[in-house]
Amino acid sequence: MSYEDVIFEVEAGIGIITLDRPETLNAFTGAMGRSLGRAYRECDANDEIRAVVLTGRGKAFCAGADVSAGADTFVAPEGVEFSAAGVDPPAWEVRKPVIAAVNGHAVGIGLTLALQCDLRFMAREGKYGVLQVRRGVMPDAYSNWTLPRIIGLSRAADLLLTGRKFQGDEAYELGVASRVMPADEVLPRALEVARELAEQTAPLSVGVTKRLLWQSSQLSAAEVGRVETELHEHLMPMDDAREGPLAFLERRTPEWTGRISRDWPENWPQDKEKK
């Protein structure tokens, strides 16, 4: 596959996606969004990829939309069906953990794309904000859904309605950042956690847990309990459910054999008729 404005590499079971327009602080383009979507699809389909890290090249993660077109920046292109999603699929649909290594400034769609990820490691020095209401448009990339889920309605309203900027320590206090650290530590720490995920966690177990976690707010407690039971019934007969305890007792790295491409539940439990 070809990737424009994005570098995609696979190292030791980790898919590393790097936004690659450093001369513009990785300002977002349509080509970048399409390339990011292709990379996400490859990460989801490739069983050799066990975790994903999304970062930016240079001193910024992503400085938002490319505004070089001036007044025409937010004009929908003619003859093309418009979507405010930014990327298809979003990161939460990738059945592997996706860590946003936010190595510097992330504003506008730069931040809303990071909100789609499972974990966000953010630079203390970075400037962040969902600024779209200050640019005559509105928050995008599902941020009206992701941000309230992450930090609650009141705090989300503070950020989405004012379009104000904030820095790393406040990002952590608000709950936007999973962890905050100096900029030069962000990517190494994200890769360290990704490696631990790749080695120590069963891929199918992580995949179904992630899918249910993102869907849980749409379900009742009883429905979550039902789905958890059905997924346990799917996982417990598999070799990984025996390998995990044995590896722990023998003090060794597990050798997982389950594969998302082969062993994923044929009918996702939530889609079945309620019992």
Concise summary:
This protein is an alpha/beta fold. It has ten helices and ten strands.
What tags apply to this protein structure?
about 280 residues, alpha/beta, 6-stranded mixed beta sheet, 4-stranded mixed beta sheet, about 15% strand, globular
**Distance separating the two termini:** 43 Å
- Choose one word for the global shape: globular
* Element-level helix/strand string: EEHEEEEHEEHHEHEHHHHH
Overall mean pLDDT stands at: 93
Number of strands: 10
For the largest beta sheet, what order do the strands appear in spatially?
Answer: 1-2-3-5-7-10
| Helix vs. strand class | alpha/beta
Radius of gyration computed on alpha carbons = 19 Å
Helical content (DSSP H or I, runs of 4+): 25-40%
Number of helical elements: 10
Low-confidence stretches: none
Portion of residues in beta strands equals: 15-25%
The largest sheet is:
6 strands, mixed
